[in-house]
């Protein structure tokens, strides 16, 4: 049967993970503590069912069989992150040789299976000592990160060609400094802006270091969670609210990291409210010189926005919601098992925006996925029948396909995630994998979607 949706040759089929979420072995072989290990030790009850990151899906020990499973389901690429606290305990100083050996083993195994490694340098996991120095609020930590990045390029650059400076850099800003769902649980807009700004500087420094090394066929980019902003109506107040939400949540990182420029309207708003970060001379040029060459797009759900119904208290502290309210569009399609909206066309809208406004940068879907609570309820004959996930992926792929037909430079699709894993405060609440994982026995079982994606990746379409 002819395929209706065929993807370009060498399309990247795969999945994404992160160190803290899959490795486990949190205190093995000299790994240092990161903020998650620490926060969990202090406040275990803030994590779903009191479960912390110490075990997770144990990839540290099972990587070999897991990579075989990736091969079995047709992956030709795979994203993992390198834990800063594992590689350089404390964040500065000597490399932990056992950690370096572990990442070499993972990379070698991927290459032996013809799976291209996509290495990410930071996925929410600040080493504890670096946080104690001020985390991303501190310029010293930015410099330590650049040294860590350089170490990674030096150690693994001969084997890994695709590199990413950050995953979703806005999330530690929102979680750690605005809405209290990541350590250090600060709620302070001005500090949040400083953290965001320094993350962008850290990205630029890592890119600069990377370019100096000139890794053969090497590319460096970043991974952003882009949430297209849709206004409730076309009236000017709703349109403005939506534009400002887009500025805060998307363009704040997208513009400096891809275009090398901070959006003027955003800078003007921050200036008006006395919220500009501290900047050093030369920063602007640094950011301009060191833009991403490759962009990972994490897309889960859109952001629907309306104009504010009540004016904010002018004497209260400045907050994002001075400018817009979120809007629950009637009739929107929801993921009933996670509570997020499903809007497949968002993928297309993001890609068209990148094509038209961001130089059609080489990009791919670096995360997309459907979280499901209590997924065991869909178990039949020993397998989770996740037809909902198959529909979810297929419908997003159709829109991605259309974007490619219309000239977008989208090169691949990675699901979040390869197997069920631990997720920040949600711990094991939402399951995302192609494989289910029994956390007690570490047994993996392919879900129905694993069989489906095998066919899709082998046929390069459906
Ligand atoms: C993304 C993160 C991932 C993962 C995913 C699912 O934002 O990059 O690390 O956690 O969200 O999130 P959750 O498990 O909270 O549903």
TrEMBL record:
| One Gene Ontology molecular-function label | beta-glucosidase activity
Q: Which UniProt keywords apply?
A: Glycosidase, Hydrolase
* InterPro entries found in the cross-reference section: GH (IPR017853), Glyco_hydro_1 (IPR001360), Glyco_hydro_1_AS (IPR018120)
State the similarity comment: Belongs to the glycosyl hydrolase 1 family.
- Identify this protein by name: Aryl-phospho-beta-glucosidase
Instruction: Please give one Pfam family short name.
Output: Glyco_hydro_1
> Its GO CC terms?
cytosol
An example Gene Ontology biological process? carbohydrate catabolic process
User: In the UniProt record, does the keyword Hydrolase occur?
Assistant: yes
Residues annotated as catalytic: 367
Spell out the SUPFAM superfamilies in the cross-references.
(Trans)glycosidases (SSF51445)
